[in-house]
TrEMBL record:
Protein origin, superkingdom: Eukaryota
UniProt GO MF annotations: mannosyltransferase activity
Gene3D superfamilies: Glycogen Phosphorylase B (3.40.50.2000)
InterPro entries noted in UniProt: ALG1-like
Topology of this chain in the membrane: Single-pass membrane protein
Species name: Gossypium stocksii
Alphabetic keyword roster: Endoplasmic reticulum, Glycosyltransferase, Membrane, Transferase, Transmembrane, Transmembrane helix
Protein name: Glycosyltransferase subfamily 4-like N-terminal domain-containing protein
Any one of the GO CC terms: endoplasmic reticulum membrane
Lineage per the UniProt record: Eukaryota, Viridiplantae, Streptophyta, Embryophyta, Tracheophyta
Record has Nucleus as a keyword: no
Length: 368
């Protein structure tokens, strides 16, 4: 039997937020023999995350110890990952490959300013060690051109593609999903909006009726006055300005009211009662479901509470790896608000079979 090589995929940070690297690992696992160093992972869990120095030393030692023929690093973050992986590759005589998602120095510039000397130093390290790689991949032709013209790096474009389980969700799967999500969609604590006011008859654990579907005998039917479902996935970071989405929601709410010649002082309770009674409007209610975790989540949740919208409702939640693709496949519209710090990379997203889907297992970007 032909002997196959071994490879090490290196991601500094949460692997759950790196779908592209997950798929690299899966692809490589089908071709090479991998021997996980389990006790290293156990030590990483035991060590306090604040002990950055210890973690970094262990990371470098692990890179040196592992006997892989290929080392596959994600960029960004680049420093100290590129440095550690390059040294380890040289010591172990293994190939060093970088997958360029974005530039670390542009991300650093968001927090300290592009004119900071730290950004210039970071840029030099990133470029210097990036040029030392044996191979390079990137996500767009724009980044390929930038790397070739200004970095002296020849990279191959490898576009993102989702796995097969990201596809339109069947009616039966939708019903099961929304039955599980009933308590979060119809009965969130302290929320009064166009969804909660019209779903008082739906129990938190109701298995026959949801906001979107109804089980009649053995048939599942879509509710005629269901809201339009808009999904936006995010890590709640400064490179995604959800203020834009909130402004759009306010504009939609006011625009529909104007088109229907509704008085601004009209009681939303009357409208919600009509919807609950089965009245259908030309312009549907909108339910925005925003998935993900991150530092700016609470800030935007507070802003959402102050909007006082009549026809638009928001829900924020974190879904399991099994439920996430089902929700994306159920959406009427997907919205992506990612802004690249370099202007050269793209979020991992596609439009597939008429339904918005994104190739991600836990976190979050989506575009129509």
């Amino acid at each position: 039997m032909e002997k196959r090589g071994r490879a090490c995929v290196v991601v500094l940070g949460d692997l759950g937020r790196s779908p592209r690297m997950q798929y690299h690992a899966i692809s490589l696992a089908r071709q090479v023999l991998l021997h996980p160093w389990k006790w290293t992972l156990l030590l990483m869990e035991v060590l306090n995350p604040t002990l950055l120095l210890w973690r970094m030393n262990l990371f470098i030692f692990t890179q040196w110890y592992c006997l892989e023929e290929y080392r596959w690093a994600k960029n960004p973050p680049s420093v100290p990952t590129l440095v550690a992986v390059k040294w380890a590759s040289s010591l172990r005589k293994s190939a060093f490959i970088v997958d360029w998602h974005n530039f670390g120095y542009t991300l650093l510039g968001l927090s300290v300013g592009r004119s900071s000397p730290f950004v210039s130093i970071y840029h030099w390290f990133e470029k210097h060690y990036g040029q030392m790689a044996n191979g390079a991949l990137c996500v767009t032709r724009a980044m390929q051109h930038e790397l070739a013209q200004n970095w002296g790096i020849r990279a191959t474009v490898l576009y993102d593609q989702p796995p097969e389980f990201f596809c339109p969700t069947s009616l039966q799967e939708k019903h099961k999903l929304f039955c599980r999500l009933n308590r979060y969609l119809c009965h969130p604590l302290g929320v009064q909006d166009c969804v909660t006011a019209t779903t008082t008859g739906i129990g938190a654990d109701d298995q026959n009726e949801t906001l979107f579907t109804t089980l009649v005998d053995k048939d599942i039917l879509l509710n005629p006055n269901r809201p339009a479902l808009v999904v936006s996935s995010t890590s709640w970071t400064p490179d995604e300005d959800f203020g834009i989405l909130l402004e759009a929601a306010v504009m939609y709410d006011r625009r529909v009211a104007a088109l229907l010649d509704e008085n601004d002082s009209a009681d939303e309770g009357v409208l919600w009662k009509e919807i609950s009674g089965g009245k259908q409007y030309l312009y549907p209610r909108l339910l925005f479901i925003i998935t993900g975790k991150g530092p700016e989540k609470e800030k935007y949740e507070e802003k959402i509470k102050r909007l006082n919208l009549k026809r638009v409702a928001f829900r924020t939640m974190w879904l399991s790896a099994e439920e996430y693709p089902l929700l994306l496949g159920s959406a009427d519209l997907g919205v992506c608000l990612h802004t690249s710090s370099s202007g050269l990379d793209l979020p991992m997203k596609v439009w597939h079979s008429g339904a918005p889907v994104k190739a991600f297992l836990g976190k979050e970007h989506l575009q129509r």
